[in-house]
Amino acid sequence: MIKAAVIGVGSMGRHHARVYNELEEAELVAVADADPDRAAKIARRYKVRPYTDYREMLERERPDLVSIAVPTQFHHRVTLEVIERGMHLLIEKPIASTVEEARDIIRRADERGLKLAVGHVERFNPAVIELKRRLEQGELGKVFLAHARRLGPFPERVRDMGVVIDLATHDLDVMCYLLGSEVERVYAETTRRIHTQYEDLLSGLLRFKNGAIGVLDVNRLTPTKIRELTLTGERGMFVVNYLTQDLYFYENDYAAGGWENLGILKGVGEGNMIRLRIEKKEPLRVELESFVKAVANDGRPLVGGEDGLRALVLAKQLVESGRSGRVVEIGVVYR
């Protein structure tokens, strides 16, 4: 039985506590939060011990793994305390406030031989998992375009970052994962309409090394929640609805007999639309099950520190592009 603890049981961390409590392979032993009432409430719900000092919790409970769901500005500080005590860790995204802090976290975890996962939960959406499987089987052929829409109203809970770091990092991670390619340059337009310090709207362009184009449409200004990804390629278009976990395939009728025999100039024709069967599961549960299994079996987390670092690097470059109005070439080494 893997002993688990959660540091920070606010809007996201409380769900980590719930899932660990439900998993057969894990035992939730304690939670910590700077707000004593919040810590006590979650602890009572799951019959575990509450702490306001996470360091005391780590010393007394000695968990095997820890979920860190504190505000991003505290990720580095809290993470180093966990690593120092030799505990495996999952950090809610983004991995850190700065690229330098992210690299330091990765280096220190590697030196101690610890499992480090980053909470890019969309990677564990069953529709994304199925899409990845179908892409690997070549069902779309060459991918031309990835277009992400992540829109919704302004949330009260987020005040320490803009939409690029908070929201677009999800899509940056998923696009790199699905396309299997690195980004070579980015361009962004950002604006601030409601938030007093950070951007609340992003229109971004990505050029991948394999020739695919990525489009990011992200904001906190839309009065309805939309979470959607489309991939357009030789054989048609896949559409993922993250919220409903639906996956659709729109067939390119011209490619039905084999794209290589048709020639690109023959164009695109509207074919069948297929709603693919997906077994729906809570992505966070799938994520934490995967992490617990990696710890128990000495495996590699599906979304590791390097993945979190890459998403953060790309997000920072998009912010810089939006600030400067220039195309930014990605020449960074992620390690």
Description of the molecule:
By secondary structure, the protein is α/β, with parallel strands linked by helices. It folds into two domains: 2-114, Rossmann fold (3-Layer(aba) Sandwich), CATH 3.40.50; 123-280 and 315-328, Dihydrodipicolinate Reductase, domain 2, CATH 3.30.360.10. It has nine helices and 15 strands. The chain has helices at 13-22, 36-46, 54-61, 75-84, 99-112, 126-136, 163-179, 283-296, 305-324, and strands spanning 2-7, 26-32, 49-51, 65-68, 88-92, 116-119, 143-151, 183-191, 201-208, 213-219, 226-233, 236-241, 246-252, 270-276, 328-329. A nine-stranded mixed β-sheet has the order 14-13-12-11-7-10-9-8-15. The protein has a six-stranded parallel β-sheet with strand order 3-2-1-4-5-6, with helices on both faces. Helix 5 (99-112) runs antiparallel to helix 9 (305-324). The longest helix has 20 residues, at 305-324. The chain is globular. The two termini are 33 Å apart.
